[in-house]
Amino acid sequence: MTILGIDPGTTRIGFGIVHKEGSAFRASASGLFEYPQDSHRFEKEFTSLIATHKPEAAAIEKIFFAKNQKTALEVTEMRGVIKFLIQKQNIPILEFTPLEVKQYITGYGRADKKQLETMTLKVLALAKKPKYDDESDALAIALCGALAYPMHKKTKVTIP
After folding, report:
1. Is domain 2-152 annotated with CATH 3.30.420.10?
2. Where are the alpha helices (DSSP H) in 11-153?
3. From CA 138, how far away is CA 114, in angstroms rounded?
4. Cys staple from 120: which of 9, 58, 140, 152, with CB 3.0 to 4.6 Å?
């Protein structure tokens, strides 16, 4: 099973591709989209990412808490664009709050970022952490999606 994980943002969007093979997990790709405001370029490259990796599901982080309403609104708008592009490819979408991601990966919903990162690297057997936090977060979200997918598969969590 292949899962696309997305950490949405306004200036950078992290992505990670995680494969589940039996009880083992591995990451095959991760990176950033650093220009989401260039909508034509973003759509082309995001669609190419999906075509290349052919994920069976996508996991995306929900906005759980926001200090800045303007930023929260912009991230919500970007989430809508991302969900639309994923839905156009008929890929099921799973959504998780940061607390849910931490719970799935570390077993503790209030784990700190370092604990989440350490456990994600360990489970995916990555030798070093990605350069950007957005990339690490996207891999954690993809891993969460891979862990949760069997339960959600029956409910077909997608955009209406």
Report:
1. yes
2. 39-53, 69-88, 98-106, 113-123, 133-152
3. 14
4. 140
**pLDDT tens digit sequence for 29-66:** 999 998 767 788 899 999 999 999 999 999 999 986 65
Catalytic residue among 7, 95, 100, 117: 7
Q: What token pair was written down for 24? A: 């083992």
Residue tagged 């955009």 (tokens): 159
Is 133 one of the catalytic residues?
Answer: no
Does the annotation mark 7 as catalytic? yes
Contact 18, 5 (CB under 8 A): yes
The span from the CA of 72 to the CA of 54, in Å, is 30
Strands 2-7, 24-33: pairing kind: unpaired
- pTM to 2 decimals? 0.90
Q: Which of 95, 100, 117, 134 is catalytic?
A: 134
**Active-site residue, selected from the candidate residues 61, 95, 135, 137:** 61
Residue 5: beta bridge partners? 16, 59
